[in-house]
Amino acid sequence: MSITNLYLNIDHLSPEILLYTDEKFYKFVETFLGSLHARILQYQHINSVPCFLLTEDPCDMLLLDIDDPELEKLTKEVCVRLKITN
């Protein structure tokens, strides 16, 4: 049985990544994690690495029950809906 370790190899990242903000930061996230992750952070205005590191759980907003079409769209793309039967 083999065990696979999943991690992001940060050995080749430039130290200047900590200075990325706004579009440069979102482009970095999109490149390494995907466009959906970048859109989740952008929706919350998490626009830099320091801001991200200060965020307890960026996915908490998916649990909010607010009337926001953009949030509803993101939630439908990210979340798996469970079918509840009585």
Describe the structure.
- This protein is mainly alpha-helical and 86 residues long.
- It has one domain.
- Helix content is 41%, strand content 0%.
- It is built from 4 helices and no strands.
- α2 packs antiparallel against α4.
- The mean pLDDT is 83.
Q: What are the defining features of this structure?
A:
single chain, 86 residues, mainly alpha, 41% helix
Radius of gyration: 16 Å
How many domains make up the 3D coordinates?
1
Strand content: under 5%
Task: List low-pLDDT spans.
Answer: none
Report the helical percentage: 40-55%
Secondary structure tally: strands: 0
Roughly what is the average pLDDT, rounded to an integer? 83
* Number of helical regions: 4
Largest sheet features: none
**What is the overall shape?**
elongated
| Distance between the ends | 40 Å
**In sequence order, what are the helices and strands, one letter per element?**
HHHH
- The secondary-structure class comes to mainly alpha
